[in-house]
Write a structure and sequence with these properties.
The protein is mainly α. The protein contains 22 helices and twelve strands.
Length: 533
């Protein structure tokens, strides 16, 4: 099965479905009902907590409720079939799983290149297919035992993971190809994102690289990707793909060879130049490979193996279940007020996980409103239509909710490239490292420290990965401990997503598993395990 750009017929189909959904007769009736209800509310507030249900007779179909709470605030709750929505949510959680990033990228570091017994792919068949790939790509796809070992290892031991990646690729690849084509780059570079991040836009490596294309903080800044307390543009699929295209184009211009450009993308141009020198001036990746860092030595084989499996997916029995959304069936709207992803999920009746999937760059589940910046919300086309139609009422409801929060939302703070941190009493390297989202070894390297000893008043240079400000540097998340398990008490305004961001390495799925919960709904005072113990 060739996984290339969506065909014109398929594009037309999605556009037709999207437009048809937005402008169907039932939709117009529903919008009219909402408008009438809003006008009636303005004339004479309804003093009740009961629900007014529109289209009550069609209980098997999506209906629209207008809930009037005690303060007469309108909330749009667009209902759906509960079982179908639960299936969608479980599928999204399974597909959008950060543990897959560790599996994919970890295999690059630990690949041993020993021969793998896999009778379904004879060596001669592999050689022929690699020759065909080599003829139609600008990469050097030549057979060698190391590449054969990687391909067979993936096919034998990672079929389940590869199947999920193929499904995810149907959402991301059309966007990748459009951007790569705009910069006149080989479309096969789309497979690099599979190797880099396992197509997880919020994947973060042990050294701090983040996003689909794994940009380090400083490199991301160089290519226009900003980081603040609310937003990390390295996790924005479109912006990060544009930045990666520019970076790769620059690397190819330097090396005039795509294999070397990929190696430089992984370990930096300096390491590749050193490997060329140590190899006596050789510029063939396979000849300088032994002089590259171990990770980079496994990087290009992983890329070529991924390309092979995707290009010959049908021959190896991979069948994609496809994503819930194709990107062409989604649209964006520029936000006009601060709004949380949880509030968006409630008013458009989508599970929070799906809204997060479509908007991964908002770190703490909040879309800020900053006059000079254009932050957007991405939703399925039919939900965008409903959001825009009811925009004024939605923002009024959101503002009222935010005013009533017991704990104020965090302030928008631009993330600095570098800070000077003053050591305080009780500080130690591990505590400082966790606070700023970096490693102890990184702090020691940046400051030339040979031991873990610190003195009060000592100044440290830190390149933070977590947002910091003068008021937040000393803030600590309060937890209690039972045995080896940390317990977090839910506060008003908390969501599973915002809680997960308070603890390094903790995800929404982990919190759910540790606490045996399936819903995203939380109540203030609820006790949650935030460590496995």
């Amino acid at each position: 099965m060739k996984l290339n750009y969506l065909s014109p017929k398929l594009i037309f189909f999605f556009l037709f479905i999207g437009i048809g959904t937005l402008y169907s007769q039932e939709e117009v009736k529903e919008i009219d009902s909402l408008s009438v209800a809003k006008l009636e509310l303005q004339k004479k507030p309804i003093q009740t907590t009961d629900s007014i249900v529109v289209n009550e007779s069609n209980r098997d179909l999506t209906t629209t409720k207008i809930l009037i709470n005690k303060k007469d605030t309108i909330v749009y709750d667009l209902q759906d079939h509960a079982l179908a929505r639960e299936i969608d949510s479980l599928w999204m959680s399974e597909l959008y799983n950060s543990e897959r990033f560790e599996e994919v990228y970890g295999s690059i570091l630990n690949q041993d290149y020993e021969p793998v017994d896999y009778e379904e792919l004879p060596t001669e068949v592999l050689k022929q297919r690699l020759e065909e790939l080599n003829a139609r790509t600008p990469f050097n796809v030549e057979y060698n035992p190391s590449l054969e070992s990687v391909i067979k290892h993936y096919l034998k031991n990672r079929r389940r993971t590869m199947g999920k990646l193929i499904a995810l690729s149907e959402y991301y690849f059309p966007m990748f190809e459009q951007e790569l084509d705009k910069h006149n780059l080989p479309l096969e570079i789309k497979y690099l994102a599979v190797v880099e991040s396992a197509l997880d836009p919020v994947a973060q490596s042990r050294v701090g690289a983040k996003g689909l294309w794994q940009f380090m903080f400083t490199t991301g800044k160089m290519y226009g990707l900003e980081v603040s307390s609310y937003v990390d543009e390295r996790a924005d699929p479109e912006m990060a793909t544009e930045a990666a295209s520019k970076y790769l184009k620059s690397l190819y211009k330097s090396f005039n060879d795509w294999d070397l450009a990929l190696a430089a993308y992984n370990s930096g141009p300096g390491n590749v130049s050193k490997a060329i020198r140590r190899s006596g001036g050789e510029t063939n990746y396979w000849k300088i490979r032994r002089n590259l860092p171990r990770e980079t030595a496994g990087y290009v084989p992983a890329f070529l193996a991924t390309m092979y499996i995707f290009e010959y997916a049908e021959e190896h029995g991979f069948k994609s279940t496809g994503p819930r959304y194709h990107q062409i069936a989604t649209d964006t709207v520029q936000v006009k007020r601060l709004i949380t992803l949880e509030q968006v999920a409630q008013v458009v009746n989508l599970p929070l996980e799906e809204v997060q999937f479509l908007n991964p760059s908002y770190k703490v589940g909040i879309i800020p409103y900053i006059k000079e910046k254009n932050y957007t919300l991405r939703l399925p086309v039919d939900k965008i239509g409903k959001f825009v139609t009811n925009e004024a009422a939605i923002y009024a409801h959101v503002e009222e909710e935010i005013k009533n929060l017991e704990t104020p939302l965090p302030k928008y703070v631009e993330q600095p490239d570098r800070i000077r941190y003053r050591v305080r009493s009780g500080d130690y390297l591990g505590k400082i490292a966790e606070r700023h989202g970096v490693g102890v070894s990184q702090i020691k390297k940046w400051n030339g420290l040979k031991s873990n000893n610190l003195r009060v008043g000592q100044r440290l240079t830190i390149y933070p990965r977590k947002p910091v400000s003068s008021s937040s540097q000393s803030s600590v998340v309060k937890t209690t401990t039972k045995g080896n398990v940390k317990i977090y008490t839910v506060k008003n305004g908390d969501s599973l997503w915002s809680i997960s961001q308070k603890f390094p390495g903790v995800t929404v799925e982990k919190i759910k598993n540790w606490n045996d919960i399936s819903s995203n709904k939380l109540k203030p005072g609820m006790k949650l395990k935030v460590s496995k113990g």
